[in-house]
Amino acid sequence: MQKIILALTIVTAFGGTALASEKCSVAMADWQPREALQTKLEGEGWKVRSIKTEDGCYEAYAINAEGKKVEAYFNPQTFQSVAMKLED
Q1: Rounded to 5 degrees, what are φ and ψ at 46?
Q2: Distance in angstroms (rounded) separating the CA atoms of residues 64 and 68
Q3: Adjacency order of strands within the sheet including 57-63
Q4: How far apart are CA 24 and CA 37, in angstroms?
Q5: Who's near 39: CB < 8 A, 6+ residues apart?
Q6: Any idea what the CATH number is for the domain that residue 33 is in?
Q7: Would the pTM of this model clear 0.85, i.e. be above it?
Q8: What is the domain count for the chain?
């Protein structure tokens, strides 16, 4: 029983680490152009400073519709928000 619990603990610990290190896992052939993400964000009231690729995602540096500076990660296929950090 202890071996099973230990094995489940190890799988859970390392499984979470793997997911955290790769925010997006989309084949390059399925990526939409970054210009399309910029158009989408600007349509939502964002002022985009730059968009680059980071950890398999699009990373946007922008001022959001509320006027706050953000560093945001988006799935390159769906443009769904994956993570966002407010900058000071």
Answers
A1: -80, 150
A2: 5
A3: 47-54, 57-63, 69-74, 81-86
A4: 15
A5: none
A6: 3.10.450
A7: no
A8: 1
Model pLDDT, residue 46: 97
pLDDT digits (tens, 9 = 90+) for 53-86: 998 999 999 999 999 999 999 999 999 999 999 9
Residues in contact with 37: Cβ distance below 8 Å, sequence separation at least 6, in sequence order? 51, 58, 60, 74, 76, 79
Phi, psi of 45 (to 5 degrees): 95, 10
Residue 54 CA to residue 65 CA, distance in Å, equals 23
Domain membership of residue 29 as a residue range: 2-86
Alpha-carbon span 43 to 3, nearest angstrom: 54
User: For every residue of the chain, which 3-state class applies, written as one string?
Assistant: CHHHHHHHHHHHHHHHHHHHHCCCCCCHHHCCCHHHHHHHHHHCCCEEEEEEEECCEEEEEEECCCCCEEEEEECCCCCCEEEEEECC
d(C-alpha 19, C-alpha 82), whole Å: 12
